[in-house]
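Protein in question kept in full:
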Amino acid sequence: MLLPYYQDVLTEAGCDEAGRGCLAGPVFAAAVILPRNFRHPLLNDSKQMKESDRMKVRKVIEKKALAFAVASIDNEEIDRINILKASFKAMHEALARLSLQPQMILIDGNRFHPYGNIPHTCIIQGDGKYASIAAASILAKTYRDEYMHRLHEQFPHYGWRENKGYPTRFHRDAIRTHGDTPYHRRTFRLLPDEQLSLDGGEEEKW
């Protein structure tokens, strides 16, 4: 059961990102301020939800939220500044786009670069604990998935409609066969070491 809020005085924005571990495409982040009485039976960590349920809940979030925003940082900037800084930058941009300024920020994870003078709290696996972070995780993931679906139309060989740019064996086999694309993150290890490839030890979940 998700908790509705972290504290009961300040207006909270939940913030989360999607696509940090991908080999291709942007990292997306979302910030969401929910009403304190917001409830939805399907709301959960986006990774634990079916795609159809994520889309259902996204529509409710976008209708009922006091404010929400989504931002992304592309693969070229990820390569320039590194993925951690890019994730923080995407979160900052999402927070800056909110129509209502929060008084406190809840971050999924264990690290964050402060946003202005607004206090924040980092919560490990927060997307499975607090409603606003779960809502942000749903927006970040669904917006990013839609983006990767569009890229799939340009580069169908890589399976991005299914793997969304994550390092599956299919994706890496496609890189080995077809090379990389302008959307791949070249500072990431696109192909594993040969021994890891033979052992199958580099396969990752997505």
Observations:
- Helices lie at 51-64, 75-81, 83-96, 131-154, 160-163, 169-178, 194-199.
- Residues 131-154 form the longest helix (24 residues).
